[in-house]
Amino acid sequence: MPVYLFTGLDLLAASGAERGGLLIVDDKIAALGKEAASHPAAQSAVTIDARGLTAAPGFIDLHVHLRQPGHEYKETIASGTRAAAAGGFTAVCPMANTRPVNDEPGHTRFILETAARQASARVYPVAALSMGLKGKGLSEMAALKEAGAVAFSDDGLPLADNRLFRRALEYARGLDMPVICHSEDLSLSAGGVMHEGPVSARLGLPGIPAAAETLGVARDIILAELCQARVHIAHVSCAASLSLIAAAKERGVRVTCETAPHYLLLCDEDVGDYDTFRKMNPPLRGPEDRQALREALAGGLIDALATDHAPHSQLEKQIEFDQAAFGVTGLETALGAMLQLVKEGVITLPRLAELMSSAPARILGVPGGRLRPGEAADVVIFDPSRPWRVREEDFYSLSANSPFIGFTLPGRALYTICAGRLTHGPEEKLT
Amino acid sequence: MEIALGRHLLGLEGFSLEQIELILRTTRFMKQINSRAIKKVPTLRGRTVLLFFHENSTRTRTSFELAAKRLSADTVSISASGSSLVKGETLLDTAMNLQAMAPDAIVIRHSSSGAPHFLARHLDCTVINGGDGMHEHPTQALLDIYTIQEHFGGLQGLKVAIIGDIIHSRVARSNILGLNTMGAEVYIYGPPTMMPNPPQSLGARVAASMEEALREAHVIMMLRVQKERDHDMLFPSEREYARCFGLNRRRLQLARPDAVVMHPGPTNRGLEISPEVADGVQSLILAQVNNGVALRMALLYLLMGDGESRRE
How far apart are CA B195 and CA A198, in angstroms? Predict the structure, then answer.
């Protein structure tokens, strides 16, 4: 593997922001800052003038759907991680809702072996909490952990049975594994296709009240407290959930949470003329929820950012709104969306790196998230001010169901390096 | 300035007073044709109207069909029960295939809100919304507005009470939009389980009681209880619904003595409306149906009929 020396970077380093070089030798960060250029290995390096660019630890996405095995027409491990690399991610956590469901060690190993051969990013599988995501019996969590799963979740099909969920939390605690909660009361949200509010009333679409999420969050927090388990609340979309999480954190409940870029940049009004690329679950909420999320993101209540990258083909999306599948892609637009928030003064660049890299690493207990000598060379180098237009035809993902098509985002990843390997770099498509 | 309706009729959202008045004027003219012994004019000869109905409908489909035929257009009627996905063909596929047969307009009735908007994005021919899910039913609202104007001479300042299952009603949505534009004072009332959340989000005044809704009303528009929503647990029993939200002779006396009663049909007699009110002298229910044909003739004419220039 070539030795890479980037010079003139703004470094979002573990020791603080500084300007300087970044030297990558084999799969490690060999030197940072002023020492990089004078390091003995620098003489044989491929040197890249990176003035004006920013380096951050590679992004880690806590929540994606890679669709393999079973739905390879939407995405594969290869295409999804290639999209991840294009977005500056060096690691992704695929959810278990593949076919077959990732509920046994053989399936986890299949994902990891496929990733080892084909992936452009590290893949940390999230295994099912219940067998077949059916909410009836627990998966073999210890064996799944041993096979390589980093967390457990039934994601979109949260366990409705509180007794079983309690057992799952207790068992996960015994393994010191986090449980990722898609918090939703399915009986309250049943039939809904968008946020319940003035816009759903006007469009004549069945609503999903914010209370469906909040009930789920309350339940998940209460049981986490009972079991002293570690829970991570996925894709928080509304203000009321944030208050519950804030109070729980104050009490010392072991709870963390994430939100996704679309909840920060869009709201229910953007469903517009029945745009199925703006349909996901939880749904885009009202403008006041978006504002609350932005404040919680800046204030630190929201621990991490995840994309909930959910590729769907036109078969699921080019149909009637109420029949269309929930979910939007996000890996290739997340950085741009977050840079928009930096531009608007909502967050700083160091906070962006924390949300997208060090916090996910901490929550999952995986390596990464730190830019410092000796660490694995998982790095993203991006231009915070290189505006680009999001176009359907430019995605690396096999699917194009992005809610940001047509947006001009302020910046993008130029180089993504995973374990010392260039997984994404400049090419014609980018210039 | 020339007033035009645009290419499609998807809903009354965004419709101007002038556009609605143009439709009403044209309807009056069409109604004269309907009163002749020979109710047919050659205006749309050689044009084809496809009636693409994904939901059961007697009234609306027959009305559109008669309207097209009285203007000498050819009509073809297609019904598909349930979703097109059940048959394995998507709505878009079906519509593209229909369009390939070169109709001039497609009237669509569909159970999904926004289905006509979706088709209008992909089709070149005129798309007319014949009722989409819980969203809009613009031709029903326009014929209601015509009927009210015909009766009272105008709509400015009239109190119109729309009562019943507001949240699931496309008739209510289109009427609120159109009636507001026409200057009427629209009140809505219904069981709390059938009201929008928040209730004022549709732009109508929200009555706190049946009495407040009915008091001094000029027009009472009763909505159909959709019994197929039984599983939604919207009200405890039909008996209780009739007792609290049904229109009977006693309640009708709360309204102005010259008030009129309307219903988009089909009625559930004894549930939302008592038989003596439905058949009473204050009922305009059959006038609505009668005016529906003329109104749809007017729309087909305005959307398809003004010369070859629009069909490049």
Answer: 12
A202–B202 C-beta distance less than 8 A: yes
Residue A148: Cβ-neighbour burial (10 angstroms; 0-12, 13-18, 19+): middle
Write out pLDDT tens, residues B73-126: 999 998 876 545 556 788 899 889 888 999 999 999 999 999 999 999 999 999
Check CB contact of B134 with chain A, cutoff 8 Å: yes
Q: Which of B90, B92, B196 is the closest to A201 by Cβ? A: B196
In 10 A of CB A421, how many CB atoms?
17
* CB A243 within 8 Å of CB A216: no
Q: Which pLDDT value is given to residue B1?
A: 53
pLDDT in tens, A194-246: 999 999 999 999 999 999 999 999 999 999 999 999 999 999 999 999 999 99
Q: How many CB pairs under 8 A join A and B?
A: 70
Please tell me which residue in A185, A289, A303, A308 is annotated as part of the active site.
Answer: A308
Closest-CA residue in chain A for B174? A202
Do B78 and B153 reside in the same domain of the chain? no
* Structure tokens, A111: 């994902």
Domain boundary among A340, A364, A388: A364
Q: Which domain holds residue A393?
A: 4-55+376-430
Q: Does residue B283 surpass a pLDDT of 90?
A: yes
Contacts of B169 (CB under 8 A, 6+ apart): B134, B223, B224
Same domain, B51 and B193: no
Provide the pLDDT confidence category of residue B228 given band limits of 50, 70 and 90: confident
Residues 6+ apart with CB under 8 A from A251: A225
| CB-based contact A323 B112, cutoff 8 Å | yes
Q: Is residue B8 part of a domain?
A: no
Please provide the DSSP assignment of A359-425 as one string. HHHHHHT-S----STTSB--EEEEETT--EE--GGG-SSS----TTTT-EES-EEEEEEETTEEEE-
B110 at interface of A, judged by CB pairs closer than 8 A:
yes
Residues of B in contact with A205 (CB under 8 A): 113-114, 133-135
Catalytic site residue A308?
A: yes
Q: What's the whole-number mean pLDDT along residues A106-121?
A: 98
**pTM of the full predicted structure?**
0.94
Kindly determine whether residue A322 and residue B113, on different chains, have CB atoms separated by under 8 Å: yes
Q: CATH number for the domain including A386?
A: 2.30.40.10
Within-domain flag for A273: yes
| Residue whose token pair is 């929550």 | A363
Render pLDDT for B186-220 as a digit per residue (tens, 0 to 9).
999 999 999 999 999 999 999 999 999 999 999 99
How many separate domains does chain A show? 2
Task: Let me know if residue B6 belongs to a domain.
Answer: no
| ipTM for the assembly | 0.92
A317 shares a domain with A396? no
Same domain, B297 and B268: no
H or E segment and range at residue B138 = helix B138-152
DSSP secondary structure letters along A264-322: HH--GGGGTTT-GGG--SSPP--HHHHHHHHHHHHHTSS-EE---B----HHHHSS-GG
Domain that holds residue B304: 17-136+291-311
